[in-house]
Every structure is written in C-alpha cells, then in structure tokens.
Specification:
The complex is a heterodimer of chains A (57) and B (505).
Chain A lengths: L5 E2 L22 E2 L2 H7 L6 H4 L7
Chain B lengths: L3 E6 L1 E4 L7 H11 L4 E3 L11 E2 L3 E2 L13 H5 L5 H5 L2 E3 L4 E5 L2 E5 L6 H26 L3 E4 L12 E8 L4 H14 L1 H4 L3 E6 L2 E8 L7 E6 L6 E5 L11 E6 L8 H20 L11 H10 L6 E3 L5 E3 H15 L5 H19 L9 H16 L7 H9 L8 H7 L9 H9 L7 H10 L4 E4 L3 E5 L4 E5 L6 H13 L3 H8 L6
Parallel strand pairs in B: 13-14
Antiparallel strand pairs in B: 1-8, 1-10, 2-9, 3-6, 4-5, 6-7, 7-8, 10-15, 11-12, 16-17, 18-19, 19-20
The chains are: A alpha+beta (57), B alpha+beta (505).
C-alpha cells in the first residue's frame, strides 16, 4: 500500500456537527489536497441538478 | 466454504443531454464494449425472482411509482427482451448487461477478498472503456458513476451474493445478520450530501450511507421499492437442496477497494459464524429500520442505538460483538481472513478515536473530508447544490477525472489492487471457483456457446447440445477435474467424453 502524503492538522470538532461532543479528538493528519481542491473548482456546480436516473434495484 | 460476488448498477449520463433515455444509453454502452465474451447467450429460463426464502412465492414484485411515467417511452421500444438486455457472458466469468435502466457489471464468483476486489475494479475498467468508445462514436461524452442515487430519490443497487449451505435455517440467518447489516455502514458507507425518500429529495445534510434512505421493510423479495433490510429472494443459482444464495441489497457501491474488501470480507465471516453456530448469541437491534437511518444521519458520528430489551449501545460496540464472536468461532487460518479481521479491528478502533483517521480507507470519510475542506475554502454553504455535484464527481469512474481516483493516484487511499491483478481479472476468471469453468468454456468454445448462466453452460455438440452443469461444482477436487478436462478437450464432444465420469453432464 502506498504511503500517505500527509501533514499535521489541528484537532477540530469530532464530527460535522461541530459540537465537540464526540470521542476525544487525537491529532488527525490530513493529506495535502491543494491541487485537488483547485481541480474541484472546475466541477460544474449544476451537474447533479441535471443528473437524472431511473430507479434500479 | 463461502464464495461471493458483487453486482453493480452504474449511473449513466451524457454531457449536454437533459432528457436522456437512460435505457437506450445503457443498451448502447453495453454494446460498445470490446470485452470478450458470448453476446446475447444468457439463459433467462431458470431465473425466478418471485421465490421467497421463507417458503412461498409472491405473485408480483413491487415497481417504483415513478416508473409509471416511463410506460409510454418503454412501449415504443422495438427491441426484443434479449436485445434490451444485450447480455455479455464474459471470458472472465462475469456478466455485463443492461439491467432495466442501468449498465450492470457482475463479478464472477470469487473465494478470496483479493479476488473480488480485483474483479470489482476490472468491472470499472470494462464499463469505463465501453463509455470511452461510446463517447467517441457519439461525439459527446458519456459519463459513468459508481454510486447509488441521483439525489432525486431514485436509487440503484450494488448487491452482494454469498453462497451458503441450505442447512443454515433461514430464520437464524435473517435474525443473525440484522444488527450487522444495520451497523456495518460505519465502515462501508459511501457517504452522501443529501437526504432522500423514494422519488424525492428531502434535505442537504450529510450522511454516511447512500442507500439507508431507501429501506423501509425488514424482509421481502423486493428490490425496487419498499426495499428490505434482508432480501428473501430464493434464487440459489446452485443445487437448491444443498445451497442458498444470500442476496444482500443493503450496501453502497464503494470506490475504495479497501472498503469493498472489508464489506465482503466481514460479511463472509459473519455468515461463516452463523453457518457454524446458527443460534449463537448476537446483538439484536430494537428498531432496525429506524436505527439504520439514525446511524446514517447522525451528524455527531456517535451512532447510538438501542438493543432489544432497551439496553443502549453504539454501532461500534455492535460490530465489536460480531468481531469477537467471529474470532472465537471461525476458521481464521487463511491469509485474507487474517487480513479482514485485522482491518475490521483497526477500523473500529480508529472510528472510535476519531473517524477522520479513516479518510485514507473509507469512502464516506474521504468524501466528507475532501468536500468539507473545499466548501470551507470556497465559502460554499452546506445547502449549495455544488456539494452534490462534487459528491457525484467522487464516484465518476473515469480515472483521469474522478475525484476518488485523484485521491488514490495521490497515494492518499489504502488498498489499491495491484495493476497486474486488475489486468488479469479483465481477462481471466478466478481459478478457485466454478467461474473458471464458465469463463474457459466461453474462451475456448465461444462460437459453440448455445447459452450461459451462473449454474450451467450449454455447448453445441456435433450431433446434439451438451449441457455442462455447474449447479454443484464447488468442491476443489471436482473443480480441478473439470479444469483438466477443459484443458485437454479440443471440442465440446471431447469435453463431454472426459467429463462423463461422475454423470455431471
């Protein structure tokens, strides 16, 4: 398995709710995604609005 | 012995097309493939999705309400049933076809986690290559998504199949797996920026599962509407007196091979546990359907639920109880089982410490962290539809543009299968299951294939048709005998002669 390209991140809230009520937060490393974040700006904001499928199984 | 496979329905769209006929597009996609196999030879005659494992047959399967709106469009199609399906029985033992309105790839039967992960990735390659060819032909880009929703309440599946001995009573099986299925989403959920109901978008909150919104029954044979936690379809594709196929429809399509492997590996171990001790003591969730949704939507990632009798617990604790029972009962001598137990244990530990530790393994964490970071940096509000567009982009299977693949290529995701394993899986079946016989028959006698199915292949002999039954071909020594006969036979009739011993044909 490839090694991760990571850097230290400040401990933040435990979940997306941000109430700090989750498990005690250790130092969580996060990868460097700067280039990917730039690429994400080019994703059409409306593509999900146009995406329509029929129900499957 | 537990064998398994995955069936994935992919989402399909084309740039610039607002009212795409997804059925026509899916048919065109399947027909655009260059993957080798037997085209339109699938044998539908033995298929019966109406048989219920509880011992009865239902008259009809439920259809989604929105499907009524497509009756006129579907009635205008002039294609035959087989033409609409456009089935391709592949030389790798898998199947690629149009399932109603979605291109579907089914892996061959596998016996190890590594095999099924490689074949699942091979499926992405085969479907993706067909999309590339169709795009070139049409002059507009066909996009394929390995996800489970269109954010409008239309879900499509990623089903797992597990071969089990019929001797395991259905009631014990269904009761024994329930709490496991409700809680396993904490490591195999694919994550979703949205909340849905059937045919309806409800809200923008993030949840850890793509599929949890769509399950409203405890048990039934249905798969398209009022989906059940435990699917009771009794279609073994094997000798019914000895075997059953446990059909799991509650599962997200994973981009992360680590999550795919953990999903299949842990489920197979739990099923082995039940096969060995059908009535072993396991947690029973008090309100499984409510807990399924509550766990998925819990924004605090605490995943609390209640057991029968009222005792409070968490999804992590429920999973740990299964893990401990597996460790004490199952045969863990095989390397892939050792790896599954190790990964299961480690993931539960990390989820408990802080779920964000798992962003290098689990889809829902990787997706949430990446998109949340983007939203924070760009000032995008939580209800902005852009988040759903990015969610969709995570699942795009074009490795040049899909967000998941960007993470993987950057070395940020664990568990990538080796390239040689994936390349081999595109062309060759696993050697350890009956898929090896199906695939080799198609490879060797392609123009003599009359029909193919999971449990048989019929070849055109010199004077009459020759049926190779795979109904009970699971013992390694029998499989080896079949493989040797196939290698030695130059014609279907020679194969028949070589296999005559044992009355298998």
């Amino acid at each position: 398995m490839p090694d991760q390209q990571q850097k230290q991140r400040d401990a933040g809230p435990s979940g997306p709710g941000g109430d700090g009520g989750g498990p005690s937060a250790p130092q969580v490393e996060k990868p460097d995604v700067k280039d990917l974040l730039k690429r994400m700006k080019k994703v059409d904001p409306d593509q999900a609005r146009r995406y329509r499928q029929r129900t499957g199984q | 012995m537990i064998q398994f496979g995955i069936e994935t329905e992919y989402g399909i769209t084309r740039t610039g097309a607002e009212d795409l006929d997804v059925v026509a597009e899916s048919i065109a996609l399947v027909r655009a493939t260059t993957a080798r196999g037997a085209r339109m030879k699938w044998d539908y005659a033995p298929e019966d999705p109406h048989a219920d494992a509880r011992g009865f047959k239902v008259d009809e399967l439920r259809q989604d309400h929105d499907e009524a709106g497509y009756v006129e469009q579907d009635s205008r199609r002039t294609l035959t049933f087989a033409e609409i399906k456009s089935d391709l029985a592949l030389v790798n033992g898998g199947r690629f076809y149009n399932d109603h309105a979605h291109p579907e790839y089914c892996t061959p039967e596998c016996s190890t986690v590594d095999e099924v992960v490689a074949h699942d990735r091979a499926g992405e390659r085969i479907v993706g290559e067909a999309a590339r060819r169709l795009s070139e032909r049409n002059g507009s880009e066909v996009r394929i998504y390995k996800n489970n929703t269109d954010f409008r309440g239309h879900s499509y599946g990623c089903h797992e199949n597990y071969l089990l001995p019929r001797s395991l009573p259905w009631r014990d099986l269904a009761r024994g797996v329930q709490a496991f299925l409700v809680t396993r989403q904490i490591f195999c959920g694919a994550g979703k920026f949205g909340v849905e109901e059937e045919d309806r978008f409800v809200g923008t909150e993030f949840q850890i599962s793509q599929r949890a919104d769509f399950f409203t029954e405890l048990q039934s044979v249905d798969t398209m509407q009022k989906r059940p936690l435990v699917n009771t379809r009794d279609e073994p594709h094997a000798l019914a007196e000895k075997w059953r196929r446990f059909h799991v429809i509650l599962g997200d399509a994973n981009m992360s091979p680590f999550a795919t492997g953990l999903k299949l590996g842990t489920m197979a171990l739990v099923l082995e546990l039940l096969a060995r001790e059908p009535r072993c003591r396991l947690p029973i969730v008090a309100a499984p359907l409510e807990s399924l949704r509550a766990v998925s939507r819990d924004s605090r990632w605490k995943w609390e639920l209640e057991l029968e009798g009222g005792a409070p617990t968490t999804a992590i604790e429920v999973q740990r109880e299964y893990l401990e029972r597996v460790k004490s009962v199952c045969d863990l001598s095989a390397p892939d089982r050792v790896a599954s137990v190790r990964d299961w244990e480690t993931v539960l530990r990390d989820l408990e410490r802080d779920p964000r530790i798992c962003r290098d393994r689990l889809d829902w964490v990787a997706k949430h962290e990446l998109i949340a970071e983007f939203a924070e940096g760009e000032g995008v509000s939580p209800d902005d539809p852009w988040l759903r567009s990015l969610d969709l982009e995570y699942h795009r299977i074009d490795p040049e543009v899909g967000l998941y693949f960007a993470l993987e290529d950057g070395g940020m995701m664990r568990g990538r299968p080796r390239e040689e394993s994936v390349a081999a899986a595109c062309e060759r079946p696993p050697e350890t299951t009956r898929a090896a016989i199906r695939g080799r028959c198609i490879e060797k006698f392609g123009d003599r294939i009359r029909v193919a199915q999971w449990d048989h292949v019929v070849l055109a002999g010199d004077q009459y048709d020759i049926k190779i039954s795979l109904l009970d071909l699971f013992a390694p020594e029998e499989l080896a005998r079949y493989r040797a006969a196939l290698e030695a036979a130059a014609t279907p009739d020679e194969l028949r002669q070589l296999l005559r011993k044992g009355d298998r044909i």
